From TrEMBL:
This is fumarylacetoacetase. Mg(2+) binds at D230, K250, T254. It holds the Pfam family FAA_hydrolase_N. InterPro entries: Fumarylacetoacetase, Fumarylacetoacetase-like_C, Fumarylacetoacetase_C_sf, Fumarylacetoacetase_N, Fumarylacetoacetase_N_sf. It comes from Ruegeria halocynthiae. Ca(2+) binds at D125, E198, E200, D230. The keyword Metal-binding applies. Substrate binds at Y127, R141, Q237, Y241, T346. GO terms for biological process: homogentisate catabolic process; L-phenylalanine catabolic process; L-tyrosine catabolic process. The active site is at H132. Keywords: Calcium, Hydrolase, Magnesium, Metal-binding, Phenylalanine catabolism, Tyrosine catabolism.
Length: 418
């Protein structure tokens, strides 16, 4: 597929993240409008809520866009998803007969505030990138015991907090937690000193299920993808994680990018999972290319300074796809809901510049990074802004997600002061 031209001329650049080929879904507001559904096209946002009100989009007897999130559209099912994409493409394509009606429904993106694009029903985070798991396991257990015995057979995950999921740009407060230093006999309650990020992708469930579903059914049920940053207090995690795994270390915040890139927009970028060391059991076996060729990067900007790119990798490095993660989630009979969010787990490549967390990049703090400013970092300092960037490169076009960023604020002086 080549670049599809739009009458919104800013969308017709090979490097622009929001061409007609993309049409990602978000929620925006302006000084004069309440939050509403919109689609990114070039440097503009197309007001989908207003288009439905004006009769330019009519997909259902009931309104789908009168609420400031995309869950009602998801609930309409894949046929409605496809119908909306076809209608938007026709409206915004070069030569559209509706252009004169639509121009008034375009809002400059730089004049809009972006909000959470969907209501998160529940949130599950996985540990499904082999390079990351190998690195972390090597740090704590040595290379011979880096991967737990189950790791090559199932996508390991834990249930997180839907209430912690925030949109890009939300400031992140450094958390307090119970820490236990190796040289101390007892723990102490202190601000986290090893605050970190995890470069991930998030898959959004668009079709509910009740009972086990296959990998193919799981792939069919995924509506779209976002960038996801799983903020992690490593020192809290080290003390609390045995025997039940992450808890408060992961509960501070999870940031997502503001635009949902639909599965349909990513179809040209599908790719196969890596070779398996052990054949997966039948209910988890690959049934086609389920990963995506999406370039990813992380930047860090100290307060008042320019950003340094500290990592670059690709989503194809994952060992398990989102479809396999979702299928595994349902094996117990666990119902899945519209708006459920699945974090991929940290995405790291085989080489140091491709590691998707500061824990790996600084090797647990033993090998600090040097930024372009000359400053060094082992973990995040107050005032640092961390940004995740993702884009798939097509034939003369780019499919982007919008940045996923957050600035870390100092810990509260007294978390219990009222």
């Amino acid at each position: 597929m080549a670049l599809m031209n739009s009458w919104v001329t800013s969308a017709n650049s090979a490097d622009h993240p929001f061409p007609l080929n993309n049409l990602p879904y978000g929620v925006f507001s302006t000084e004069t409008t309440e939050p509403r559904c919109g689609v990114a096209i070039g440097d503009m946002i197309f007001d989908v809520t207003a288009a439905e009100t004006d009769g330019l989009i009519a997909l259902s007897d009931e309104p789908l866009f009168d609420l400031p999130f995309w869950n009602p559209l998801m609930e309409g099912g894949p046929a409605v998803w496809a119908a909306l994409r076809a209608r938007l493409t026709a409206l915004l394509a070069e030569g559209s007969d509706e252009q004169h009606k639509l121009e008034a429904l375009l809002i400059p993106r730089d004049a809009a505030e972006l909000h959470m694009p969907f209501a998160v029903s529940e949130y599950t985070d996985f540990y499904a990138g082999r390079n990351h798991a190998q690195n972390v396991g090597t740090m704590f257990r040595g290379p011979e015991n880096a991967l737990p015995p189950n790791w090559l057979h199932i996508p390991i995950g834990y249930n997180g907090r839907a209430s912690s999921v925030v949109v890009s740009g939300t400031e992140i407060r450094r958390p307090w937690g119970q820490l236990k230093s190796p040289d101390q006999d007892l723990p102490a309650f202190l601000p986290s000193r090893r605050f970190d990020i995890e470069l991930e992708m998030g898959a959004i469930v668009g079709t509910p299920s009740d009972g086990p579903i296959s990998v193919q059914e799981a792939d069919d049920n995924i509506f779209g993808y976002v960038l996801l940053n799983d903020w992690s207090a490593r020192d809290v995690q080290a003390w609390e994680y045995q025997p039940l795994g992450p808890f408060q270390a992961k509960a501070t915040a999870t940031s997502i990018s503001p635009w949902i890139v639909t599965k349909a927009a990513l179809e040209p970028f599908r790719c196969d999972a890596p070779d398996r060391e052990f054949a997966l059991l039948d209910h988890l076996k690959d049934c086609g290319p389920m990963l995506y060729d999406i370039d990813l990067a992380v930047t860090m900007a100290p307060q008042g300074n320019a950003a340094t790119t500290i990592a670059q990798t690709n989503y194809r490095e994952m060992y398990y796809s989102a479809a396999q993660q979702l299928a595994h989630h349902t094996t117990s009979g666990c119902p899945m809901n519209v708006g459920d969010l699945l974090g991929s787990g940290t995405i790291s490549g085989p080489n140091k510049p491709e590691r998707g967390s500061l824990l790996e990049l600084s090797w647990g703090g033993k090998d600090p990074l040097t930024l372009d400013t000359g400053e060094t970092r082992s973990f995040i300092e107050d005032g640092d802004t961390l940004t995740l960037i993702g884009a798939a490169k097509g034939d003369g076009y780019t499919i982007g997600f919008g940045d996923c960023s957050g600035t870390v604020l100092p810990a509260l002086e007294d978390p219990y002061a009222r």
